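A further point concerns the way the authors explain their paired sequence and structure data. The central task, working out the structure tokens from the amino acid sequence alone, is never made concrete. I therefore recommend that a typical entry be quoted early in the introduction. An entry of this sort, consisting of the sequence and the corresponding backbone structure tokens, reads as follows:
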Amino acid sequence: MNPMPELAPMLKRLRLSGILETLPARNQEAIDNKLAYSEFLALLVQDEVARREHKKFNLRLRRAGFRGEKTLEGFDFNPSINQASIKDLATCAFIKEKVAVLIAGPCGTGKSHIAQALGHLAVRAGYDTLFTTQTKLLGQLHAARATDTFQRRFHNVVNTPLLIIDDFGLKPLTPPYDEDFHDLISERYERAATLDRLRHGAYRVILDGESFRAPKPLPQSPKKHLGKEAQEH
């Protein structure tokens, strides 16, 4: 007796229809290997968990807004870059620590690539990530006021575990964009001077020289983490 016709509608009602994709193969595997019912069930559950995790990963990746497939595996390290520091950041421990990462260096040294690569690793680790530019981010916040969606948009950005701002500092911040940026950083790091908050205790990566950690620790109970890329002058 084939149970598939009866199982299909019930699995759909339980939102487990994905099991139907591997059920025939797992059923045959159970028969061939004389698996216990519990072992057969465990295989189906593992398949469903893997499917859901893959779906969540693809959703996080799509929402992140990366520019192509910029990964750490595809980055060409030159001798001036401290690979050990980059690989330490690749563990994504800085997100749990709620410490900022400042990436600086001349144009063309790979700042954007490394920033996105760290973002990819964060997505793989299960963190919601947003990669954007200073102009795009502040422009979207400003435009949201016209549609009365500013607060929702603002808090979505504030609550994103990893925020990567590309090309920060290349254009001057003018009102009202400077106030929006200050408010954004203040919400993520509690009340403090914006630039001081970004620099305080941050990991700094200088691509044409040494990579080092700023010595001062962050204060207790920070809110969210801001990872960003900046051009220092």
